[in-house]
Amino acid sequence: MYSLLLLLPLVSPLVKSAAIRSVDLAGYVLTDTGTINGGNTFPGVSRPLGMVKLGPDLYSGTDAYSGYLPNGNFTGFTMLHESGTGGAPKYGVVSQMPVLGAVQNPLSDAINDTRAAPDVTEIGYYKASLGSGTVLEMAATNKAGMFQYTFPTNGLARNVLVDVSHVLSSYRGQGLEQHFLGGSINVHNDTKAGYYYYTGNGTYDNGWNRAAPWTVHFCGYFDSPATYKTFLGADRTSANLVEYGQKTSYSSTTARLGAVFSFWKSSVTSRVGVSFVSEAQACANVKAEIPLGTSLATVRQGTRDAWNSQVLQKVTTSETNVTKLNQLYTALYFMHLLPTNKTGENPLWQSQEPYYDDIFTFWDTHRCTTPLLHILQPNYHEELIRSMIDIYRHEGYVSDARSSFFNGAVQGGSNCDNVFADAFVKGVRGKVDWEGAYAAMVKNAEVAPPNNNDPRDRTSSTKEGRGALPDWLKYGYITPTYGRSVSRAVEYSVNDFAVATVANGLGLQNDFQKYLNRSHNWRNHWNTNMTALGFSGFLGPRNANGFLAQDPLSCGGCYWADYYYQALPWEYSFNAHHDLDTIIKYSGGADTFVKRLEMTFQPGVYSGNGAFGNTIFNPGNEPSFTTPYLYNFVNRQDLAVQRSRFIAKSYYKPTPGGLPGNSDAGAMESWLLWNMIGLYPMTGQTTFLIGSPWFKDLTISLGGGGKTLSITTSGGSEDAYYVQSLKVNGEAWDKSWVSWYDVFAEGGSLDFVLGAEPKNWTTGATPPSPGSVSVDDARRMLTAMYKGSVSEL
Ligand SMILES: *[C@@H]1O[C@H](CO)[C@@H](O)[C@H](O)[C@H]1NC(C)=O
Ligand SMILES: *[C@@H]1O[C@H](CO)[C@@H](O)[C@H](O)[C@H]1NC(C)=O
Ligand SMILES: *[C@@H]1O[C@H](CO)[C@@H](O)[C@H](O)[C@H]1NC(C)=O
Ligand SMILES: *[C@@H]1O[C@H](CO)[C@@H](O)[C@H](O)[C@H]1NC(C)=O
Ligand SMILES: *[C@@H]1O[C@H](CO)[C@@H](O)[C@H](O)[C@H]1NC(C)=O
Ligand SMILES: *[C@@H]1O[C@H](CO)[C@@H](O)[C@H](O)[C@H]1NC(C)=O
Ligand SMILES: *[C@@H]1O[C@H](CO)[C@@H](O)[C@H](O)[C@H]1NC(C)=O
Ligand SMILES: *[C@@H]1O[C@H](CO)[C@@H](O)[C@H](O)[C@H]1NC(C)=O
Ligand SMILES: *[C@@H]1O[C@H](CO)[C@@H](O)[C@H](O)[C@H]1NC(C)=O
User: Where does the record locate the signal sequence feature (predicted)?
Assistant: First the structure.
C-alpha cells in the first residue's frame, strides 16, 4: 500500500525538516525491476553504495550475474554481489545456506533448495521461502548483514552451512569463471553471548575483469546455542571430504573448507560482518553496524531511512501517478547500487583518500550516470573522482572499470577521461588534485599498457589504458591489427578531447592544441564510400592502404575482436559528441542529418533488433543513448522529444522485465531519469540538451545550501508532451540547450509549456560543438564553458 498523503509538496520551510523525515518515498521503489530478461539487476538488500549486497544465489545452468534468477534452486545466500552487470558473474561469496536433516557431506552439490513461494523483495528486506520449509529473511548495513532463519517444526535437524568456497560460477565457457583459491575458518566461543561464532577468510580470482586473487574476511555471530562440525575438502573444487568433525580451525590454499552449525531452536539469527582488510575489522564492522541484540526490523528500517534521506528525497514532486513515481524512485535506487564505497577497506595501500570499487563500467556510465551523480550526490561524486586519482597514483592507471581491487575490463576508450573532464568543466574542485587527474589522463593518452593476453582479444590490453594506442599515435587511426579498431577510434577521439579540455583549464596550451588535434582523428575513419539505405559516409575500418569494405548495418560479431564493439557502424557514426557540427557536415548537412536520424528510428529497416521493432536504434545499449537527442544540434527539438519519449514509454516499465537491456550498473535507469527530468547531458561539456519533462513539477536538491533546480510543466499529459515554450530562470528561451551554469551551478528554474502538437520553438543558437572550430575558438569556447560565461559561447 502506498500512501499518497505522504507526497504533499514540501511547502513551508518551517515544517520542512519534520516533513522530510516523514516522507517514505522508499515505498515507491520496486526492487525487482530489471531482474529478468537480461536486466541482471540485484534484488537483494543494500544501502546506497553499500559494500555489502546480501541476497540469494540461484543455479539453473546459466550465468546468474547478480546471484538472482527467477527459477532454479538456491545454493546459498551471500554477502557480496554486483547489480546489472554482464559478461560473467562476480562475487557470490561469504555464504550461509540452511540445510535440514543430517548433513552427510556439506560439500555435496545435492545441497540446494527449491522455492516454496516467490521471493519477497523491498528496500532493505529480502525473504526467501525454501521448499524444505525454512524461511530466510535478510537485512543489511554497509559492511554487515543479518540472516533470520525460521526453521520448520518437522523434527529434522536444523543446520546452517558456511561454505567458504561458494562463488557464483560462469557457464559461458570463456574462461571467465571465478575460482576459490583457499581460505580459513575458525570457530570461537563467544564468551559474552555464550554462543559460537566463526571468523575466517576466502581468496578468489577471475570473473569478468579477470582479476588477480583477492581476499574477503568475515565474522559471523549466531544468537542461539548450537553444535558444530568443521570440514576440509580434498581439493579446491571437488566434493570429497578429508576431514569432518569438531576441530576449531582449518586453513588451506589447496582445499575447500567451512563449518556446519546445528541448532535446536526453530528461530535463529546470524549477524555477519565483512572486511577486505582483516578478520578483526570484519568483527569490528558487524559490532559497529549490527550490535548484539539488534532486530531485523531495526536494520531494515535503517536501510529504508538511509535511502530516503541520502537518495530519494533529493528529487520530489507533487505527482500522484503511482506508475510514474515507481519509475522515478526505482530508477534512482538502481543508479545508487554501484560503484561501492570501500573507503577504509582497501587492502592494497594506505591512503587518506576515499576508495571506490565495482566500477562497471565508465563505458556504460559516463554518458548519463556520472553527470547525474554529480548533481544529486556532489560529495559522493567528488569522493569517486578522488578515488580514481588515488588508484592512478598507486597502480599507474585509472581504468575504465574496476572490481575486487583490480582494473578491467576496458571495452573501448579510456572513458574515465570523460568523467574527469565532465567534473572539471562543471567546476568540481574541492579536494580533487587536478594535476594528478591530468597526469592519469595523459598516461592513458600516451603510454600503451602491457598486453594482458585476454582470450577475448589477444591483440592488446583489456585491463587498463588504451591498448590500441600504438596505431593511434603512429597513424592517427587504428588498423585491424587491434580488436574493436573503429569503435575504439571514435572513443579515443572523445577521450583526447577530454584531455584537451582539462589541459586548457590547467593552462597547458601546447597540450591543449595537441589533444584537440588528436580529437579529430575519428575523421580519418570516415569512409564516404560506405552506403546504406540511401545514406553515404560512415565510420569504417581501414589500414595504411585505405579503407576496407564494410556494411554500415553490420558489426560482424560485435565483440572484442571485431571492428565494432556492441553497436553498428551506423550508430558509432553519430558518436564523436565533441565534434557534432563536423558529423552533421559529413552526413550531408542539417536536412540530411535529420533524415539520417529519422532512418535510425524507422521500424523494420534493420533486421537485427527484433525486440525494438527492427530499428537501427538500440535502446538497450549505450552507444545509442545520446542519438535521439542529437536533433537538438539542428534545432529540431520536437523530433528529439518525439523519439526519446517514445523510447522511454515503450521500453521502460517498473516491472521485473521492464528494462530494454542489461541495467549496466544503473546506466539504463539513469538514461530514463534524464528523460523524466527533461534534459540530457553532453558529458565532458557544460551543455544539457532540452527534452520534455514528465511531471507537473519536479524539484531537484543540488547538494546542500538549499540550492534547487525547479522544473514545472503546464498543459502536458500522456499525449501532450511537445514543448511549446520554455522559460529559464523566468526568461523566455529559444535555444535547444542550457548550460550547467544556467540552472545547476547556483540552482535555477525551467518552466515548460507543453502541448499535443510539435512546434519549432528552438530558433536560437544551436548547442556548442567545441571540437569543430579553430584552435582559438575552441579555447575560447572551453574557457567560457568552465568560467560559466555562457554568453561567450
Ligand atoms: C532443484 O532441486 C530439486 C529437488 O531437490 C531437484 O529435483 C532439481 O533437479 C533441482 N534443480 C536444479 C536446477 O538443480
Ligand atoms: C540439487 O539437489 C538435487 C538432489 O537433491 C540434485 O539432483 C541437483 O543436481 C542439485 N542441483 C544443484 C544445482 O546442485
Ligand atoms: C586467512 O586466515 C589465515 C588464518 O588466520 C591466515 O593464516 C591467512 O594469512 C589469511 N589469509 C589472508 C589472505 O589474509
Ligand atoms: C565452547 O564452549 C562449550 C561450552 O562451554 C564447550 O563445550 C566447547 O568445547 C567450547 N568450544 C570451543 C571451540 O572452545
Ligand atoms: C500514469 O503513468 C503511466 C506511465 O507513464 C502512464 O502509462 C499512464 O497512462 C498514466 N496514468 C494516467 C492516469 O495518466
Ligand atoms: C564512504 O565511506 C566512508 C567510510 O565509511 C564515509 O566516511 C563516507 O562518508 C562515505 N561516502 C559517502 C558518499 O557516503
Ligand atoms: C595541430 O595540427 C595542425 C595541422 O593539422 C598543425 O599545424 C599543428 O602543428 C598541430 N598542433 C599541435 C600542437 O600538434
Ligand atoms: C571511393 O570509391 C572510389 C571509386 O572506387 C575511389 O576512387 C575513392 O578513392 C574511394 N574513396 C574512399 C574514401 O575510399
Ligand atoms: C519545423 O521545421 C521543419 C524544417 O523547417 C519543418 O519541416 C516542420 O514542418 C516544422 N514543424 C512545424 C510544426 O512547423
Answer: 1-17
Residues 225 and 353 in one domain: no
13-47 residue pLDDT tens:
333 444 444 589 999 999 999 999 999 999 999 99
Whether 560 and 649 share a structural domain: yes
- Asked if the structure places residue 642 within a domain, the reply is yes
The total domain count for the chain is 2
Q: Which amino acid does the sequence have at 397? A: Y
Using one digit for the tens of pLDDT, what is the confidence trace for 399-414? 999 999 999 999 999 9
41: in domain: no
Ligand 6 atom with minimal separation from the 48 CA: 14
Pocket of ligand 9 (CB under 6 A): 758-760
Q: Which tens digits make up the pLDDT trace of 655-675? A: 999 999 999 999 999 999 999
452-479 confidence digits (pLDDT tens): 999 999 999 999 999 999 999 999 999 9
Task: Let me know whether 551 and 692 are in one domain.
Answer: yes
Q: Within a domain: residue 516?
A: yes
**Domain around 584:** 342-792
Q: Output the pTM of the full model.
A: 0.96
Residue carrying C-alpha cell 539504463:
668
Which tens digits make up the pLDDT trace of 184-194? 999 999 877 78
CATH code, 259: 2.70.98.10
Q: 344 C-alpha vs ligand 6 centroid, how far in Å?
A: 9
Assess whether 535 and 681 both reside in one domain: yes
Indicate whether residue 114 lines ligand 1 (CB < 6 A).
yes
> Are 708 and 677 in contact, with CB atoms under 8 Å apart?
no
Predicted pLDDT of residue 705: 81
Assign residue 477 the CATH number of its domain: 3.30.2080.10
- Tell me which residue has cell 536486466: 39
Task: Quickly count: other Cβ atoms within 10 Å of residue 548's Cβ.
Answer: 15
**Measured in angstroms, how far is the CA atom of residue 761 from the centroid of ligand 9?**
10
List the residue whose alpha carbon is closest to atom 14 of ligand 4: 189
| CA 208 to ligand 1 center in whole angstroms | 27
* 291-316 pLDDT tens trace: 999 999 999 999 999 999 999 999 99
Distance CA 721, CA 755 (A): 6
Q: ω before 43 within 30° of 0 (cis)?
A: no
Other beta carbons within 10 angstroms of residue 40's beta carbon come to 25
Using a 6 Å cutoff on CB, does residue 203 contact ligand 3? yes
Mutational test site, ligand 2, from 60, 109, 165, 167, max ligand atoms within 8 Å of CB: 109
Give per-residue burial for 348-363: e unless 16+ CB within 10 Å, then b: eeeeebbbbbbbbbbb
Among 164, 180, 198, 201, the mutation site with the greatest number of ligand 3 atoms within 8 A of its Cβ is 201
Distance from residue 764's CA to the centre of ligand 9 (Å): 15
Q: How far is the CA of 548 from the centre of ligand 5 (A)?
A: 49
Centre of ligand 4 from the C-alpha of residue 97, in Å: 23
Q: Any idea which ligand is nearest the CA of 636?
A: 9
* pLDDT band, residue 169 (cuts 50/70/90): very high
Kindly state whether residue 508 falls inside one of the protein's structural domains: yes
Question: Closest Cα to residue 682, out of 498, 506, 516?
Answer: 498
Q: What letter would DSSP give residue 762?
A: -
